């Protein structure tokens, strides 16, 4: 009904496929995406005003979804079609008869909008990427975003609203030293960025392009973003609680990337420690380490109590107040190069 009204009033001039980077193994890949009216948001600039930032963020949330549209994915000789749901989302899980090569960890998938939504639509084609770990992977990293990478005040509603709607990817600055530490983890001891990163957050999919730009601007390792739908109907997007959403998404990653251990990074503001405890119970032997940024002093003791439960299962949880603590620990364990400690310290100083 909304789409029909928009077309009738001439409010929809072009449509777009918004692909969300995915992941998989040598036998199958998984990714999501969305078909929407082309919003024309563009790249942000440091000098953008608060009003311009607000208008762009408004466009991200006031979407015109394209339901019941067919999207075709072509990859590695396999063609598959998915239909968008009532909010424009589509999902692909593509399996292969023969294993795909692992030389390039980022694989390209062609997506085309098959359905004719507008009269003068033209060709709507985009390229999506999925991560398939190479043979050089030492471990993977799964990180939260809000109050783990960037301060957002996720535990304070008004502070979070101001931060989200009045800033942009250029002005949202990560915690000091985070980008250098994450780069060091990505390189590991091999010295090349082979270790995969996955970002799991309760932020809505509407912020996907914003968060991707933030990662690029601040030189955080490239990796799939697993966000949350703000609707209430789709089971496969898990739009329920923060705990349920993150647990399901991390378990999906563990199930598909099944032959490497993981370092989990989060914060004390919500329930990351308890979520990670459940992951260890569900996937014994798969978690190397847990780093929790201490952003909520009132929850300090609760996190330490959870850490005791985690220790009983043979995994260490470290509650850190700054990035250097985690970096020194990772170096002492032989997970990052000693010389990268200097880079983390220098970047932390610059950020501060």
UniProtKB/TrEMBL annotation:
- Residue stretches making up the Phosphatidate phosphatase APP1 catalytic domain: 139-294
Record-linked Pfam families: APP1_cat
Q: Which stretches are annotated as coiled coil? A: none
Q: What is this protein called?
A: Phosphatase
Q: What does the organism's lineage look like at the top?
A: Bacteria, Pseudomonadati, Bacteroidota, Cytophagia, Cytophagales
């Amino acid at each position: 009904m909304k789409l029909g009204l928009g077309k009738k009033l001439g409010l929809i001039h072009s449509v777009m496929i918004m692909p969300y980077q995915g992941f998989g193994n040598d036998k199958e890949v998984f990714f999501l995406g969305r078909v929407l009216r082309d919003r024309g948001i563009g790249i942000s600039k440091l000098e953008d005003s608060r009003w311009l930032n607000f208008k762009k963020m408004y466009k991200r949330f006031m979407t015109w979804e394209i339901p019941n549209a067919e999207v075709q994915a072509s990859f590695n000789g396999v063609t598959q079609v998915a239909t968008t749901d009532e909010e424009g989302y589509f999902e692909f899980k593509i399996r292969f008869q023969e294993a795909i090569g692992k030389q390039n960890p980022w694989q390209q998938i062609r997506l085309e909008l098959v359905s004719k939504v507008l009269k003068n639509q033209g060709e709507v084609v985009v390229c999506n990427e999925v991560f398939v770990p190479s043979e050089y992977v030492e471990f993977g990293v799964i990180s939260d975003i809000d109050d783990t990478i960037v301060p957002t005040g996720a535990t304070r509603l008004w502070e979070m609203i101001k931060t989200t709607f009045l800033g942009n990817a250029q002005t949202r600055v990560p915690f000091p030293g985070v980008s250098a530490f994450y780069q060091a983890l990505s390189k590991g001891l091999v010295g090349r960025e082979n270790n995969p990163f996955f970002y799991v957050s309760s932020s809505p999919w509407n912020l996907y392009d914003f968060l991707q730009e933030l990662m690029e601007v601040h030189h955080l390792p490239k990796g799939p973003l697993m966000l949350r739908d703000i609707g209430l109907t789709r089971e496969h997007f898990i739009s329920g609680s923060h705990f349920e959403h993150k647990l399901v998404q991390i378990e999906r990653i563990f199930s598909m990337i099944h032959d490497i251990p993981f370092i989990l990074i989060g914060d004390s503001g919500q329930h990351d420690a308890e979520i990670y405890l459940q992951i260890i119970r569900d996937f014994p032997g798969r978690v190397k380490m847990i780093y929790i940024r201490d952003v909520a002093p009132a929850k300090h003791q609760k996190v330490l109590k959870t850490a005791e439960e985690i220790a009983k299962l043979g995994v260490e949880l470290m509650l850190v107040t700054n990035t250097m603590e985690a970096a020194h620990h990772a170096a002492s364990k032989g997970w990052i190069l000693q010389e990268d400690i200097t880079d983390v310290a220098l970047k932390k100083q610059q950020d501060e």
